[in-house]
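User: Watch each token:
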Amino acid sequence: AHGPWSLEDILGEEDEQDRVPLQKLKLLGESEELRALLLNPHLRQLLLTIDQAKDKSSLMRRFMQEPLFVEFADCCLSIVEPPEKENILPE
């Protein structure tokens, strides 16, 4: 009724720690590794199933047992939240 929603309309302050900055989300679209994973029809079906599900949380718990879904989630996390470099030994 009043135009498009903003993130502030959807997320409260308690959700702030779970937010990923837009700049980091854009990195997902630039990842060749992620694009390659998304070519897998089984993964695409899993993602569509989650997107269309009413009870997403229980479905997510089940899919987190699927190695392909875990690989997808790990890939996304490594892009938006790269591992700390402080524990890596210099070459």
User: Anything to note?
Assistant: Residues 64 and 70 are 6 Å apart (CA to CA). Residues 22-80 form one domain.
